[in-house]
Prior knowledge:
- Chain A is mainly alpha-helical.
- The first copy, chain A, has 10 helices and no strands.
Amino acid sequence: MAVSPTKKKILDEASKLFQERGYLASSMRDLAKRVGLKASSLYSHIGSKEELLQKICFDSARGYLEGMRAIEESDMRPTKKVEQLILLHIQIATTDVSSMTIFSEEWRHLSEPYLQEFRNMRRDYERRFGRILQQGMESGEFTEMNVTVCLSTIFTSLRWLHRWYPEKRSISMKALEADLLRFLMNGLRK
Amino acid sequence: MAVSPTKKKILDEASKLFQERGYLASSMRDLAKRVGLKASSLYSHIGSKEELLQKICFDSARGYLEGMRAIEESDMRPTKKVEQLILLHIQIATTDVSSMTIFSEEWRHLSEPYLQEFRNMRRDYERRFGRILQQGMESGEFTEMNVTVCLSTIFTSLRWLHRWYPEKRSISMKALEADLLRFLMNGLRK
DNA sequence: GTCTATAACTTGATAGAC
DNA sequence: GTCTATCAAGTTATAGAC
């Protein structure tokens, strides 16, 4: 299971490169240059360009799903669960910026059957998130509204983090998290 | 200023194609096939592939900026202004789905000097939107929080519309707009 | 493992006949 | 205006020497 240092470097640089330019606009020559190799040498460590995208996408997906399971199994109120889920997204976005971007936007360049598999995992996650929102509405903690609207709004608004974060550090991380969490929880309340 | 029917068809199909697959993943041969021509024939009507992207991006930008100006010039309260801006976004997203997507995500494939110009227009729009939010906080209509956080959250959450809308029609357009508006205005209130 | 060389293919765009 | 033919450049990936 130990990953060689070169392979790790390739994966790290690929994450950054795909984030900056997008998967399609990133060539294996660009990647090799950043790693300090010729393009052909990359293939001693990896099988293909898409394999890199697959690894990034599915590793990220695993992170979300594990976090979701831990929260589901707890006996918190829906309000607290949603708070924890939002904090999970924020934490992933701020600790692993490049993967988050790729996970959010580049996954559609996966080929089958990976594309289908990714979509399934995503839908599973969304359904489980939606179920918690539903519970919160039924228990009267949240205002009644279309679950898909809430869900999509929360997801996409958590997605801007990965664009914004690497740039400005004028506002402290803690303050940012607090304001974002407050805005979204505010949106749900009665 | 009249655009020939063929040119219009090329623009329309380009919008749809770029939205579905992304700008880079769309080839001129794909586009030609949809239009019902050979790739080389496209160049009797347009100058280049990027010219299509430019037109889509800047036409969209114009729509937002015009809407912004009308709202700025009115004498509504900040709350009402923000409501109107959100409705403007919803309206653009639901009437011109493909352009909205490209405007949101594909603009970065513009080359200079268009890229710089686009960024400037975007920043201008964001600043003006931010100023209204600031006014609302100062007047006590909105809760005090980081303006960039509000702004980015509102923008990106309005952006999911263009992914969601073409698919599901189970919820009526009016209900959707109402819930989304409510969620976001809720997020701002004290 | 890394390199050079290259295969096999796709891309945007052009030339020139009709 | 549309076509066929083609160019020039770029792509992922492989072969084989070292």
